[in-house]
Amino acid sequence: MQGFGTDVRAYDPGDMGYKIKSYQETPNPNALKCVLDRRTGEKTRSYFKAADAAGDALAAGLFGIPGVTNLLIHPEWITVSKNAGVSWKVMKGQIERVLNEAE
Fold it and tell me: Minimal CA–CA distance to 96: which of 20, 16, 25, 14?
C-alpha cells in the first residue's frame, strides 16, 4: 500500500521507558516507592551515592536528579530517597521523565 513505510520493526519492550503505575509512601517521608509497569531486571540493587551507580544506566539517570540521595531498585519497583529540603511535587516529575527515557 502506498503511504506506509517499509521500515517496520518488531515490538521490543526493551525499547520503551518505564511507566510508574503508582507511588507508595514509606515510613520515611524522604523516601518514595515507585511501582513500575515492567521489570527493571532480575536482581535487587542498592546505591547510596552516584559513584556507586556508575555502571547502572537507570540508577545513574536517577542520581542525575538534584536531591536524590539513594536508590533501592527492585525488579518491580524503585524506592527513591531525597534530601529533606526538596519537595516530592518537583521530584516526581523528574523521576517520571528519567524513567520514561530509560532503556
Answer: 20
8 A C-beta contact, residue 71 and residue 65: no
Check pLDDT > 60 for residue 13: no
Determine phi and psi for 9, rounding to 5 degrees: -105, 150
Tell me if the pTM is above 0.70: yes
- Asked whether 26 and 80 are in contact (CB, 8 A), the reply is no
- Residues 34-56 as b or e (16 or more Cβ within 10 Å = b): bebeeebeeeebebeebebbeeb
Identify the architecture of domain 19-101 in CATH.
2-Layer Sandwich (3.30)
How far is it, in rounded angstroms, from Cα 2 to Cα 62? Answer: 43
Side-chain-side CA neighbours of residue 87 (13 Å) = 3
